[in-house]
Amino acid sequence: MLPCRSLLVITGESRYLWTHGITPRKCDTVQASKGHKSGIITSDVEDLTLNKRGIRTSFMFRKVKQTPYNCSYPLACDSQMKDTPASFPESNKEA
Fold first, then answer.
1. CA dist 18 to 14, 22, 50, 59, Å?
2. Which among 32, 36, 56, 59 is positioned nearest to 45, based on CA atoms?
3. Cα–Cα distances in Å, from 29 out to 1, 3, 40, 48?
Protein backbone atom coordinates (compact mmCIF):
# COMPACT_ATOMS: atom_id res chain seq x y z
CA MET A 1 0.00 0.00 0.00
CA LEU A 2 1.29 3.47 -0.84
CA PRO A 3 1.56 6.04 1.94
CA CYS A 4 -0.54 9.20 1.64
CA ARG A 5 0.69 11.77 -0.89
CA SER A 6 2.87 9.21 -2.68
CA LEU A 7 3.71 8.97 -6.36
CA LEU A 8 4.15 5.68 -8.16
CA VAL A 9 5.69 5.69 -11.64
CA ILE A 10 5.15 2.41 -13.49
CA THR A 11 7.62 1.58 -16.28
CA GLY A 12 8.87 -1.38 -18.28
CA GLU A 13 7.39 -4.84 -17.69
CA SER A 14 5.21 -3.70 -14.78
CA ARG A 15 3.63 -1.04 -16.99
CA TYR A 16 2.92 -3.19 -20.03
CA LEU A 17 2.49 -6.76 -18.77
CA TRP A 18 0.86 -6.37 -15.34
CA THR A 19 -2.59 -5.12 -14.43
CA HIS A 20 -2.89 -2.46 -11.75
CA GLY A 21 -5.48 -0.19 -10.22
CA ILE A 22 -7.17 0.98 -7.05
CA THR A 23 -9.41 -1.80 -5.77
CA PRO A 24 -12.85 -0.40 -4.95
CA ARG A 25 -13.59 -1.13 -1.29
CA LYS A 26 -14.67 0.75 1.82
CA CYS A 27 -11.87 -0.35 4.19
CA ASP A 28 -8.19 -1.35 4.05
CA THR A 29 -6.32 -3.73 6.36
CA VAL A 30 -3.52 -1.75 8.03
CA GLN A 31 -0.98 -2.11 10.81
CA ALA A 32 -2.51 -1.18 14.18
CA SER A 33 0.79 -0.32 15.87
CA LYS A 34 2.99 2.50 14.59
CA GLY A 35 6.32 0.79 15.39
CA HIS A 36 6.69 -0.98 12.05
CA LYS A 37 7.99 0.33 8.74
CA SER A 38 5.22 1.90 6.66
CA GLY A 39 3.80 -0.29 3.91
CA ILE A 40 4.82 -3.61 5.49
CA ILE A 41 2.05 -5.79 6.88
CA THR A 42 2.96 -7.92 9.89
CA SER A 43 2.19 -11.63 10.11
CA ASP A 44 0.71 -10.97 13.57
CA VAL A 45 -3.02 -10.87 12.78
CA GLU A 46 -3.75 -9.34 16.19
CA ASP A 47 -1.76 -6.24 15.13
CA LEU A 48 -4.00 -5.59 12.10
CA THR A 49 -7.05 -3.36 11.97
CA LEU A 50 -9.52 -2.06 9.41
CA ASN A 51 -9.12 1.54 8.34
CA LYS A 52 -12.05 3.26 6.61
CA ARG A 53 -11.03 4.68 3.24
CA GLY A 54 -11.33 8.35 2.58
CA ILE A 55 -11.25 9.94 -0.84
CA ARG A 56 -8.63 8.38 -3.12
CA THR A 57 -7.57 10.12 -6.28
CA SER A 58 -5.60 8.58 -9.12
CA PHE A 59 -4.08 10.61 -11.96
CA MET A 60 -2.88 8.99 -15.15
CA PHE A 61 -0.79 10.89 -17.68
CA ARG A 62 -0.41 9.55 -21.20
CA LYS A 63 1.36 10.77 -24.30
CA VAL A 64 -0.49 10.11 -27.55
CA LYS A 65 1.96 9.17 -30.27
CA GLN A 66 1.16 10.09 -33.86
CA THR A 67 3.25 7.25 -35.31
CA PRO A 68 3.35 3.54 -34.39
CA TYR A 69 5.51 2.84 -31.36
CA ASN A 70 8.18 0.13 -31.47
CA CYS A 71 7.43 -1.32 -28.04
CA SER A 72 9.60 -3.86 -26.21
CA TYR A 73 6.38 -5.72 -25.32
CA PRO A 74 4.62 -6.20 -28.70
CA LEU A 75 1.93 -8.56 -27.34
CA ALA A 76 0.71 -5.83 -25.00
CA CYS A 77 1.20 -2.87 -27.33
CA ASP A 78 -1.91 -1.60 -29.16
CA SER A 79 0.02 -0.31 -32.17
CA GLN A 80 1.76 -3.67 -32.73
CA MET A 81 -1.25 -5.96 -32.31
CA LYS A 82 -2.79 -7.49 -35.41
CA ASP A 83 -5.86 -5.68 -36.66
CA THR A 84 -8.99 -7.36 -35.37
CA PRO A 85 -12.46 -6.03 -35.96
CA ALA A 86 -14.07 -4.35 -32.98
CA SER A 87 -16.69 -6.43 -31.23
CA PHE A 88 -19.81 -4.82 -29.87
CA PRO A 89 -22.42 -6.22 -27.49
CA GLU A 90 -25.46 -7.56 -29.29
CA SER A 91 -27.86 -6.90 -26.42
CA ASN A 92 -28.18 -4.82 -23.25
CA LYS A 93 -27.49 -7.98 -21.25
CA GLU A 94 -24.08 -8.43 -22.93
CA ALA A 95 -23.21 -4.79 -22.34
1. 5, 14, 27, 18
2. 32
3. 10, 13, 11, 6
Is residue 93 one of the residues assigned to a domain?
Answer: no
Q: What is the DSSP letter of 2?
A: P
67 inside domain = yes
At 42-90, the pLDDT tens digits run: 677 788 888 898 887 888 888 777 777 777 887 777 766 666 666 777 8
Q: pTM value?
A: 0.45
3-state secondary structure of 63: coil
